[in-house]
Structures are given as C-alpha cells and as structure tokens.
Specification:
Layout lengths: L4 E3 L26 E3 L7 H8 L1 E5 L5 E8 L3 H12 L12 H8 L3 H13 L3 E5 L3 E7 H8 L3 E6 L2 E6 L4 E3 L6 E5 L3 E2 L19 H7 L28 E2 L6 H7 L13 E6 L6 H11 L10 E5 L11 H12 L4 E6 L8 H12 L4 E4 L1 E3 L10 H14 L2 E5 L7 E2 L2 E2 L11 E10 L5 E6 L1 E7 L6 E2 L5 E5 L3 E7 L10 H4 L4 E4 L2 E4 L6 E8 L5 E8 L2 H19 L6 H5 L21 E5 L2 E6 L25 H5 L12
Parallel strand pairs: 1-17, 12-31, 13-15, 13-16, 14-15, 16-18, 18-21, 21-28
Antiparallel strand pairs: 2-9, 3-7, 4-6, 4-10, 5-6, 7-8, 8-11, 19-20, 21-22, 23-24, 23-25, 23-32, 26-27, 29-30, 31-32
Helix pairs in contact: 2-11, 8-9, 9-13, 10-11
Pfam families: Peptidase_S8, Pro-kuma_activ
Protein name: Serine protease
Keywords: Calcium, Hydrolase, Metal-binding, Protease, Serine protease, Signal, Zymogen
C-alpha cells in the first residue's frame, strides 16, 4: 500500500498582489511607524482573498491563537550551516550543541523581552515563549491592534476561513526581530491524505481468503521478481507478464542495495521519525513483524516515543508504523526516536515535532513523510520558521530527509509544482523507484516510479483498456519557484533540469517506493470487514523511500560520525549512486507485472514518467535525482575525517 500522509502541495509565486474583493483593502498606508513582515512567498490569505467568497467581517470578539517567530542572527546561522555542511569548507563538520547554537544564533534575551512586551501591550495573552518564538492568544480586535490588519470571513472550496485582509505589520522597533507571523488566517484544519492500498495480496492471507475476494487468477506471491510468469493471463507487450512479489522482506531490500556487504547495522546512530499523530501499536507491530520474519526486534531502550501534550492518537493508518519498520529494515541496530508533535503550541504538529528534535538533538538522521503544501489549508508564512529549524539542524549535525511526494510533476493552474518541506534547500528530498529484486536478492533493474495500469476484462481474455492504460501514482519531482538553485546543485544539475531562472530541483536521491513492489510491513489496522487486527501488506510511496534512505544515512553515521546536512557530500559523490533507468534494465523493452487488486487482476506498467509530468535523462534528473543508494556510496564515507567540535 502507499502509506502516505500529505497535505497536497502548491508552491506559490515569490510575491503576489492582493486582489480587490469585497471587504478587502490594499496595504495600510496610514501606519508610518509600522513595518510589513518580510514574506518569502504567498500566504494562504492571498489565495483566500483572490479566490474565496466574502461572507462578511469577522466578529471582533472571535478568539484566535497566533505565532510570532524570532529572526535571531539569520544571516550568521545560514552562513555557518553552509560552512559545516560543505566538504570544501575548512569548518566542515564543526557542529555545535543545541545550547551553543541558540546562544550564537538565537535572539538575545533583551530582544525576546521587547517582542513579548509589545505583544502584551496590545492586550494579547502570551501563552509560551522560547528561542523559536512567542505563542499568543486573544481576540480579533486585539490581533488587529497588534498586527495592523483587519479580518474578514470567506469560504473557499466549501471551507470557511477567517482571513487577514491587510499586509501584516509590526512596530518598527521590533521589526528586525520578527521572522514570521502565522495563525492569523485560519480555516478548517487540513486533513492528512488517506493512505491508498496497492491491493496486492498480503502474504499472510490464505488462498481461500483470496478466492473469496475475487474469482480471477490469484497471485502466487513469488519470492522474487521473475520467478513466476503470468502464463494464465493475457500477454502484454508481446510476452507474458510477471506475477509481482507480495512485498519484499527487509533482507531482500538490504541485499539489493548492497547494504549487507557493508557489515554496518546503524549501531550508535539514532533515526528520528516525524509523526503528526501517535500510532499506539507502532512498536508492537514492528516487533511482531520482525519476530515472524527472522529480523531483530527492537530491544528495550532502542525505541523511544516523544509525544507532545495534545498530540493526536486517533491514527490507525499505519503510516508511521511503516516509517519505523522501513528505517529499522535498513539499519536494524540503530535507535529510533518516534517524535509526535501537536497543534497546541506552534499550530502545526510537523513543525512542533521538528522543533522538539532540533531543540534537544534527539536524532542524527530524521525522516519525514508528512508534506505540508502551500494550499489554503496551510500557512506558508511558516516556511521561514521551518527553514530556520533546518539550518539549526545542519549546525547541530542532524540530517533531514523528506519524501518528495506521490503526485509526479504535479500541475496546479497549469504550472508544475513541488512539495514542501522536500523542496527546502536544507533537506534531502527522497524520490521513488520501482525496484525488481531477483533470485539471490539480486538487483535486476530499477526504474522511475511512475506507473500506469489496466484491468483484466470480465471474460479474462484481454486487458481493458489496452496497456499501459490509466495513469496511477508517481514520484514527486520538479523545480521550485520559491527557492533558487543551491550551491551544491551547481555543476551537477543540468540546465535542462534547473528551470529558468534556475531553482531548487528535487528529488536529490531515490529509493524503493512502488507500492506494488514495495516493502512488506506489519501493522494493526481495520481489516476488510471493519474489524481491527494485525495484517501484513506491501507498503510504498515516497513515504517508504524516505525512511529507507534515512536508514542508509544511519549506516553512514555509524561509519564516520554525524553527517549533518547531507546534500553537499552526496552531490560530491554523484558517481557513487546507481543510475535509475527510464525503462527496465535500461533497454527500450517494456516490462509489465500483475497484481491482485480490488477483487480483480491488474496489469502494472512501470517507468511511465512522461504522463506524470516528469522529466528524465541519464545523470541527474528531476524524476530520480542522483539515483539510488549503493554499497559504494556508503563505503565512500569510510575513512573521511571525523567531525570536530565547533568553534
């Protein structure tokens, strides 16, 4: 199944003019002692104002919660984050502790006090203060006094919104201290994307159970790709299709990527898993699966959960169970820190989890499968706070990897878009592949994850429609319109993939993501009859690829110490990656495989990147980045200088 959490991404333009709508004014020009808060991109207010329906002014007594983020020494932080991440810089690897990072680049105590005093003077209640920012609450009338904006009500897409209709301003004497303000525009909270099952037959279901689901031929679940030609099905592309394995085991994936030969297990490293909700069965599921498949279980103390007060515990989707098991599959002796944020403080559980990890340095490597997109349901002004945290993580020697998304080169209003946080220039964006693992767990071929499908006709004699059929999911990739090209991509990313003007291209790397040839996982969820129980299914999506790559990074940490922001070192090793092909085995031949899905048989054709709005060429490309991990990549970090203490 494609275990994916996503608020679909739309990266907006760098700036946008407010459109005149009922009840909306242009920038307030009658406040000479106030300064607009610098903005990196559109806020969701802009889209609500442009496209929403005005329904009247907001009641001044309406309660709200807002967040004011501190700037600190933003330029110094960015400079040092680059220096400690660049192998060519003499300060490379001179990481700092969280305490030294805050002392050196955080806001001074007197500036924190000045911002806090201003907010209190407006009548807002100060609910929390940290080096990251201030959380305030109060009425709309008090927020108007504090931030110089009026408020109005709108509806957009059936969702009601409260929107700040004027540019947000702050007093001139604290303007240099304020990085961003969020929470003023609010609507119905965005919902995580519902995971989609691949429908492939779970390995722990009996043939009798499968027969009750469908009268069509049943996938025999071969152990390896190519073991079982589907001779009982119509041919595809002039030859029999192959029955797909019903999920690879952890050992198969380790062997295929060359990890077994490294002798590394992740011992001594800690992998952080970002959770937007707490899956109470995650540890039990991971250990049950491991025990039943000959894998090492998570020993006492090897797994820790850090759950914020007010965090959601309602999720039984298995997203984070998959993240934990995927990371454990690649680095079975690494510690795992499952960090679950809440909306209580910063209004965003993902930001809250990241802040917790960075503030306490809870991990060496972090995987994020939650994508927060610039939609009307999410406040992109918070991107500035995210970027500051990612730079602090780089200074502390923490590696962040984020899934690139499952929507290909998604089009929004006719423009290709990329998702966030994976498009941040301070994280490693992980794209997805379709991986065929053959006999003796050999790496047969690996192609861009971009599939199309067709179903077996009712008479069982043909595919309907003709293959390849309908477009399905695909790895996310493309070029950001918000971030310029980072230094580490210069000279590696071809001009044809860099955009115009040149922007941040994603993904950086890729790993197994196709849910039809995914990693077998065990989880507690609702079964076909609506009862909760333990099942095993093949998981996928780039939310599988991200923790798989995080596991690889943990092996590197074991081999050489903290890696920190990994991209400069990874791009310097571009030739140590396995180049992913556009067609299986790099030939023009098309290969298809069959799975049982939704009560029938489905034929899946991989590598159909063009219809997913993805671009591909040998070398770096915005479908698979540098490629997938290899033993050579991991071994290339052995013997590199150990990181030294910061100055």
């Amino acid at each position: 199944m494609r275990r994916k959490r996503r608020l679909y991404a739309v990266l907006g333009c760098l700036t946008a003019a407010l459109v005149s709508l009922p009840g909306v004014s242009a920038a307030r020009a009658d406040q000479p002692d106030r300064v607009p808060v610098e903005r990196l991109t559109d806020t969701r207010s802009d889209r609500v104002l442009r496209e929403g329906t005005h329904t009247g002014p907001t009641d001044p007594a309406t309660r709200l919660t807002a967040q004011v983020f501190f700037r600190g020494d933003a330029n110094g932080l960015a400079d040092y984050a680059r220096a400690v991440s660049d192998p060519a810089d003499p300060r490379y690897g001179r990481f700092l502790t969280p305490e030294r990072t805050r002392a050196r680049f955080g806001p001074a105590r007197q500036r924190i006090d000045a911002v806090t005093a201003w907010l209190r003077d407006t009548g807002l209640a100060v609910d929390a203060v940290s080096s990251l920012g201030v959380v305030v609450s109060g009425t709309v009338a008090q927020a108007t006094a504090a931030f110089g904006t009026r408020f109005a009500n709108y509806t957009l897409g059936g969702t009601p919104y409260r929107a700040a209709v004027d540019p947000i301003t702050v007093p001139a004497d604290v303007a240099a201290d304020v990085l961003a303000v969020t929470g003023l525009t609010a609507g119905k909270p965005g919902k995580p994307d519902i995971p989609v099952s691949s429908g492939a037959l779970p390995a722990n279901r009996t043939p009798d159970e499968a027969a009750r689901r469908t009268a069509a031929p049943t996938n025999p679940c071969p152990a390896h790709f190519g073991d079982t030609p589907a001779t009982d099905l119509p041919p595809a592309y002039g030859r029999p299709a192959q029955w797909a394995p019903c999920g690879y085991t952890p050992k198969q994936v380790r062997d295929a990527y060359g990890i077994t030969g490294t002798g590394l297990t992740g011992r001594g490293a800690t992998i952080g898993i970002i959770g937007s909700s707490y899956e109470v069965n995650a540890l039990a599921d991971a250990n049950r699966f491991a025990a039943e498949h000959g894998e090492p279980t998570l020993a006492p103390g090897q797994f820790t959960a850090h759950v914020a007060p007010g965090a959601s515990t309602a999720d039984v989707s298995g997203e984070f169970a998959m993240d934990i098991q995927a990371a454990h599959a690649m680095a079975p002796e690494a510690n795992i820190a499952y960090v679950v944020g809440s909306r209580t403080q910063w209004g965003d559980p993902v930001l809250d989890a990241i802040a917790t990890i960075v503030d306490r340095r809870l991990a060496d490597v972090v995987s994020g499968s939650v994508l927060s997109g610039f939609t009307p349901g999410w406040a992109p002004d918070a991107i500035a706070a995210y970027e500051r945290l990612f730079q602090e993580a780089a200074v502390e020697g923490i590696t962040f990897a984020f899934a690139s998304g499952d929507s290909g080169g998604g089009l929004v209003d006719g423009v290709r878009t990329v998702e966030y946080p994976s498009s941040s220039p301070w994280v490693t964006a992980v794209g997805g592949t379709t991986l065929a693992i053959g006999p003796r767990n050999s790496h047969l071929w690996e192609v861009v994850w971009a599939t199309e499908y067709t179903d077996l006709a009712a008479d069982g004699t043909r595919w309907d429609p003709e293959p390849p059929g309908h477009q399905e999911k695909a790895t996310g990739g493309g070029v950001s319109t918000v971030f310029g090209q980072p230094f580490y991509q210069r000279g590696v990313v071809p001009a044809t993939f860099a955009g115009s003007p040149r922007g941040r291209a994603i993904p950086d790397v890729s790993a197994l993501a196709d849910p039809d040839l995914g990693l077998l996982i065990g989880l507690t969820q609702y079964d076909l009859d609506g009862n909760q129980g333990y099942v095993e299914e093949n998981g996928g999506g780039t939310s599988l690829a991200s923790p798989l790559f995080a596991g690889v990074a943990a092996l590197i940490v074991q081999a050489r110490g903290p890696l920190g922001f990994a991209n400069p070192a990874l791009y310097a090793r571009q030739h140590q990656f396995r180049r992913v092909h556009d067609n299986p085995a790099g030939t023009p031949d098309t290969i298809a495989f069959a799975v049982n899905r939704h009560g029938s048989v489905r034929l899946v054709t991989p590598g159909q990147y063009e219809n997913a709005n993805l671009d591909f060429a040998p070398g770096y490309n915005t479908a698979t980045g540098l490629g997938s991990p290899t033993r050579e990549l991991i071994d290339s970090f052995r013997g590199t200088p150990q990181p030294q203490g910061g100055s």
